[in-house]
Write the structure tokens for this entry.
Amino acid sequence: MACILSQMASSRFYCLTVLFFLAFLNLNLFASATIVSHDGRAITIDGKRRVLISGSIHYPRSTAEMWPDLIKKAKDGGLDAIETYVFWNAHEPTRRQYDFNGNLDLIRFIKTVQAEGLYAVLRIGPYVCAEWNYGGFPVWLHNLPGVELRTANQVFMDEMQNFTTLIVDMMKQENLFASQGGPIIIAQVENEYGNVMSSYGAAGKAYIDWCAYMADSLDIGVPWIMCQQSDAPEPMINTCNGWYCDSFTPNNPNSPKMWTENWTGWFKSWGGKDPHRTAEDVAFSVARFFQTGGTFQNYYMYHGGTNFGRTAGGPYITTSYDYDAPLDEFGNLNQPKWGHLKQLHEVLHSIEETLTHGNISTIDYHNSVTATIYATEKGSSCFLGNANSTSDATIDLHGTEYTVPAWSVSILPDCQNVAYNTAKVKTQTSVMIKKKNQAEDEPSSLKWSWRPENTDDTARQGRGQFQAKQLLDQKAAANDSSDYLWYMTSVNLKKEDPIWSDNMTIRINGSGHILHAYVNGKYIGSQWAKNGVFSYIFEKNVKLKPGRNLISLLSATVGLQNYGPMFDLIQTGILAPVELVGYKGDERIVKDLSAHKWSYKIGLHGLDNQLYSLDSSHASKWQEHNLPTNRMMTWYKTTFKAPLGKYPVVLDMDGMGKGFAWVNGHNIGRYWPSFLAEEDGCSPQACDYRGPYDNNKCVTNCGKPTQRWYHVPRSFMENDVNTLILFEEFGGNPARVNFQTITVGSVSGSGIEGDTIELSCQGQPISAIEFASFGDPQGTTGSFVKGACEGSKDALSIIQKACVGKETCKIEVSKDVFGSTNCDSSIVNTLTVEALC
Ligand code: GAL
């Protein structure tokens, strides 16, 4: 720029020369195409067959400020590529009006991946599922006349093609496909259509053929994939999704064996428990996949992140999308998962050549025990797999005996020495803790003001914005512009109406989301789905009067359905019938109000008036006196000081009911801490990694608030004063609401002789050693105890010297360091250390 501004002729000449030179360099640097091709064995990049490890990070589930750190940690974790979906409804919220700002800046995200030297996998969809609102479809699409989604319907296909082309063109314009020298090596069209295709009949098959044709015609110069599509037409590559994909084979012999979603954990629903998948089991699934000829593997998720605003899918997906991924919701290393997988990636990459070129032979030892040998002229690499969930195996390979623990895979890069076993975790375990806001003494320092949500014209007067003589599907009627829709009708009851009785009720058929009912301006009750059953009948006694009676029903959706055959047609809001019932002995007189004239109002006044926004013109009417608690439909406001330091910030919503929270106008998502997770299913015992995983195994948080803490990205806050605004729908008490930071509290690790234990407090010094023992220590993190035998030197003081005051320390596990032990010969001498950060 300085060049261009320069006015001096001589320097202008100099500058032009420099610019030409730079442009020339640029061409060479960025325009050189990377050739991505494939055969039945592997993806080939610039002539080299690759073992590719990728991980999903969805750009809108974090902030642009977080991306460099997340991507760097992914690279440090041994990833080659970052995968993301593209979120159509976020980018095109209104037809032909696009948004690529802030955390929707897809180009910036891909360029951040590129800057870190990683490849990118772009799953355009544009249907994505992803526990994202409506699976990523904009609701206006559903409202287009004549449209049918995900099938051979011209209206839909035109829109899909329009958006897909737009994304492809944006990428091309920035030279982001590998064929143009960019990082994108693979793209995806549709998503798991094969799982639901049969419901669409012949039109489904025609649609998937069209998807393939349309994608191919976009000429992106890198391979296209279709996940879970066992009839994927060439040149589409059919790929696998699941917790295990070792037995998957693509339909086309020219397609390499690829795994697009290795679920590192699972998502969480309101009322559900916290799912966990062990590091051992994830590593086992990956190693087995590569043992059985896999070539590309993507972690779904590598970083799950947060469903900000109204982006959570449904029904009932929580705001946290942590997923128990290797990087937690806030971007911290989830240890030992991150580190255990990093070590696996190092070993797999070290044998890339053999894996992608070697002749494969297998020895079957029965009882789910196998050895796989990849042999090239230069050398061989072996996998010893034991898929038995209870018994360890002893395998004789080329005359040497190896013990392979149950449900594990050993990798021997030279077919002699075990470099890695999936069940032996040699990475530290970290325990994260929350710390109080050091900037002020919360929660007592938070001074709250409040104002009621104005429900006069709806609950009391029944005034709406439009009318219909039927009960409308909420998502279509509200066009997804709000969670809230008022359904209002009046019913004229004559004195002589046969319905009159002492026992009269209103019966409402709900779609599973939330209902708050008011009759003649009086609140009579609420209902919502619990225990995963998404339909209910609300029935409550009502006092009606002769003449006009007003019925006002406020429906609140909690994320629109994102998965299933024809999920897009599932109705939300109040379903028919809505009835008044008069009970007279055995007799029931029913008045069906479904076809009455209903008035509708989308949203709430406070939302319309943007009370959450700092520059709302209605900002003045907040009051400080008579702060209510447990009052429905109430707005609360406070200011706070951002917690000191750099650690991630969470908002503790303990005591609140359900609603939305905004920090400086940023919607941090739905909160609902009053919804407790199911009581049953958590086990006090440590989770057994052995045996097939599913999302009901290894759950925690039974009976506690489904989600108590909510991520407030640092970039949402200013250094001095910040504003927090809550809309409380059910009623709560803000007295305990406070901000905290999340950081590593303690770290622990174990190793046997020959290992090196590395402990790191991730940027903070190690402050103390809680436990150290070389011998036969027992227990788990937080409750280690010494065993019956011990090394002759004082392990504790040795480790204190080596670690305290340092951010990271490495300890070699050996008798030289810790002295010989008095352990029985059957015991493997083990060092266990636990340190406080
Ligand atoms: C898959 C889907 C993903 C995600 C995942 C569960 O079926 O392709 O988008 O929804 O399930 O987290």
Observations:
- The CA atoms of residues 72 and 116 lie 7 Å apart.
- The pocket of beta-D-galactopyranose is lined by residues 128-131, 191-192, 241, 261, 267 (CB under 6 Å).
